[in-house]
Specification:
Elements lengths: L5 H4 L2 H16 L4 H8 L3 H9 L6 H11 L5 H13 L7 H7 L2 E6 L10 H9 L7 H13 L2 H4 L5 E7 H5 L5 H15 L4 E6 L16 E5 L5 E5 L6 E3 L2 H17 L3 H13 L3
Parallel strand pairs: 1-2, 2-3
Antiparallel strand pairs: 1-4, 4-5, 5-6
Helix pairs in contact: 2-6, 3-4, 5-6, 8-9, 12-14
Length: 278
């Protein structure tokens, strides 16, 4: 369901695409209902897109390109930027950096990182957040989150290293079936040639050291050889380029990795947890 408040907060690209779609629809003499039939959506969905109440999905943009685009590629080119409009405010600056990364190093504490989430896990997680989002907003955020997975198959290939705290593997989100599927997806992704997946075990602190005590952390390397650190506490975000600070975060990440299980041992643990009748 479209949200009327989105009309006031819609991003620049969403507004521009809506205006272009409306102009081209009228040039072709189509009503919203008629365009909806052509692209496989309802007239109300077309209206919501044109007013900014509901940003166009990837599927709608593909259909708009086919029916209204006339081979210009306007809607195809807009897909990436409309997707950015859908991300939460605190994530918008980091999202383009993530997609351009040549290397990504992530430590995640209490949840599965968004890049590794299944659609079902993401839906259950986002729907249970506070303040409660509408069904339409949940769908919008899940679609944007799933689109981030293009990083894994992108050319040139990105190196992705993920360390997940064992507590995130044991915390059930949605249902046991959803969690079982999520854990299986982790194993599948962890076996990709450009992905390394490790688990920081619950017992990591027994030796008197626990490097993950300060929360989640993401390190990014770009094609320009820039290095960034990204933190996201409580709906806020910090994108850090200061070389001294990034070096400290990189050293802390190295300690976390040293305390984590090896890749093979980590995948074996996740497989065991996926097979447990919890």
């Amino acid at each position: 369901m479209a949200r009327s408040e989105n009309k006031e907060t819609a991003g620049t690209t969403t507004r521009y695409v809506a205006r272009i779609a409306r102009i081209l629809r009228k040039q072709k003499g189509l009503s919203q209902e008629e365009l909806g039939k052509e692209i496989g959506f309802t007239g109300s969905a077309v209206s919501a897109m044109e007013t900014g109440a509901q940003p166009a999905s990837d599927q709608m943009l593909e259909a708009l390109e086919r029916v209204l685009g006339d081979g210009l590629g306007l809607f195809d080119e807009a897909r990436e930027f409309v997707r950015l409009d859908k991300y939460p405010r605190q994530f918008k600056d980091f999202a383009p950096l993530e997609q351009r990364a040549v290397a990504l190093f992530v430590y995640e504490t209490h949840l599965i990182n968004g890049l590794l989430q299944t659609a079902e896990y993401a839906t259950a997680l986002i729907a249970s957040s506070f303040p409660p989002p509408t069904d339409g907003k949940v769908e919008e955020l899940v679609e944007a989150r799933m689109a981030r997975k293009a990083l894994f198959s992108r050319r040139p290939t990105a190196l992705v290293e993920m360390i997940v705290d064992e507590s995130a593997l044991r915390r059930e989100i949605g249902s046991r079936d959803i969690m079982r599927s999520q854990l299986s997806h982790l194993v599948e992704t962890g076996r990709l040639r450009n992905v390394t997946l490790q688990v920081l075990p619950l017992a990591a602190g027994l030796r008197g050291e626990y490097a993950g005590d300060r929360g989640s952390l993401t390190l990014v390397e770009t094609p320009e050889d820039d290095r960034w650190a990204y933190l996201e506490p409580q709906d806020e975000s910090l994108l850090i380029k200061d070389a001294t600070k990034v070096r400290t975060y990189a050293q802390r990440y190295a300690k976390i990795r040293a305390q984590a299980l090896g890749p093979d041992e980590s995948l074996a643990l996740i497989e065991r947890l996926a097979g447990e009748d919890r």
